[in-house]
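User: quick one, sequence for these tokens?
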């Protein structure tokens, strides 16, 4: 029976990805900063571990506790809508620490076992905003674009060992806690110089008629990336993400 380790499983995409793999008879190691067992269905194939991807000791302990795995899904991350000029550099660093450096550090911790076994898959969940420039998301977009570049490079390095790396690019997902989690990290939205732009962007984000991404879309894309060797490097997840990907092709 194969095992997947997934980060950021307390809600949203990570939670749905964990449910997806459990439903398909995989062993699932669901990791969270603060472990909760009540959000996932009871199963003897489920383990919930504490993991803070910004903490090297937490990464070491989680990888050791997880044991051998076949698939790593780097899903943990957050973003915030702010004018770049008004985003504190501490917030930019926090975004990169989680989204970029956390993904790289956990991947580094897992790759030795993949390389030695000559098998394994790394699936990195980034964002469709890396396909198309949007205002107020400069730091978030940059952090995710860096993961895209990292993933595409390691895919070339790891091919010789039979190890794959893939990207899943979700679109806007209002049915997750992304916006709620981002709220504390937003800055400068009330600055008069950006008032009209902020109003325009949030009106666009609140358009109920626009296509969106559901957590299940992301789970299915991750499943494909993990289990289908013929899957493309970048897999858009959600109707809006698919439309953007088609625009840039």
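Assistant:
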């Amino acid at each position: 029976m194969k095992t997947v380790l997934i980060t950021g499983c307390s809600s949203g995409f990570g939670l749905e990805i964990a449910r997806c793999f459990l439903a398909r008879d995989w062993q699932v190691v669901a990791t969270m900063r603060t472990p909760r067992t009540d959000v996932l269905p009871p199963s003897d194939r489920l383990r919930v571990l504490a993991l803070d991807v910004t903490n090297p000791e937490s990464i070491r302990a989680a990888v050791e506790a997880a044991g051998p795995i076949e698939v790593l899904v780097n899903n943990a991350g957050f973003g915030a809508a702010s004018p770049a000029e008004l985003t504190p550099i501490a917030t930019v660093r926090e975004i990169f620490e989680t989204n970029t450096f956390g993904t790289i550090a956990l991947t580094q911790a897992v790759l030795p076992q993949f390389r030695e076994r000559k098998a394994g898959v790394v699936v990195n969940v980034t964002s469709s905003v890396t396909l198309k420039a949007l205002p107020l998301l400069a730091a978030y977009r940059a952090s995710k674009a860096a993961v895209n570049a990292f993933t595409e490079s390691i895919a070339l390095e790891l091919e010789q060992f039979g190890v794959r790396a893939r990207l899943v690019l979700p679109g806007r997902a209002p049915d997750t806690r992304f916006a709620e989690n981002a709220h504390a990290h937003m800055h400068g939205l009330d600055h008069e110089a950006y008032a009209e732009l902020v109003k325009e962007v949030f009106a666009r984000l609140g358009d109920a008629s626009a296509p969106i991404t559901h957590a299940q879309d992301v789970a299915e894309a991750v499943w494909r990336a993990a289990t289908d060797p013929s899957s493309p490097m970048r897999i858009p997840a959600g109707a809006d993400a698919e439309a953007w990907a088609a625009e840039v092709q």
